[in-house]
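Would you mind writing out the residues of a protein together with its fold in token form for me to study?
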Amino acid sequence: MVASWGNDNYFCMLGEGSVKKLKPVICELCELLTKTVEEEEATILALPPPVRKAYQRLITGAMCIAGLIDPMPGYCGSSPADVTLITTYKGSEIFESTLKILVTHKNAPFWGSQYDEFLKTATTATLSAPFLKRHLSALALMPGSHDGPSPEAIKAAIKDLPDLRQGLRQGATAQMETLLLTALVNSGRLMMLQADLSQGSDSVNMVMNGLGLFMNKDGVLDLCRELSAWRGKMSANMSAHDFGNYMKDAINSQTASKQQYNTNNKNDKYNINNKNNINIDVAQQP
């Protein structure tokens, strides 16, 4: 079974001359194998031990390829352990040995660079994977929903993206960046459609700061210029809006303090009267 999967055509597909062109096909094969094993887990567990072992060997090989060919941490369920099992293999099985030579050979530019990047970021990728997954979930548009991600989700993604870019392999944050940029562009466009300022300066600054992470993307610089011009035009309204919020909070705070003062004053009067009554009662006792 292992030989039927890991045949000459399979290894030729992974070769330096064709791997870049066939990367989508290779990824699809990895995903298909992973999905099949997950869906048929009960059936596979019921198979004889030698067959189960063969499945495990195929899965490990596929996870090694998935972990190297795609920079996304945990892609297709892969882990650093899957890559290490193949790259440090010392056995005599042809399938594992061939894969090891293929992905670690010094004269293999594609796999060599992928493996080098993997080694440099393996620890960081393991630690960052949960954060990246959480951001992807928070930024993704829910099926059937027309609402974008929350301002809190956008703000958190803006904060973490620079560190994720620096600590992960190139391209690992591509999906997150696409979702974040879409959210920022939509937010910026909606802001400029407002006849008056319904949001404070913090929201405008957040969008501008976020767009600053994508200045190399087409159209972002133009959008920043439009937003900057709009912000200048609306600055008076913005100041009035922020000042209005400040005054509203101040009035509410003053009202609450006054109510508390009246309550305390009333209680003090009650205590005084009660104390006088007690003194009178005591005085009148024989």
The chain has 13 helices and no strands. The chain has two domains: 1-104, 122-233. The chain has a mean pLDDT of 82.
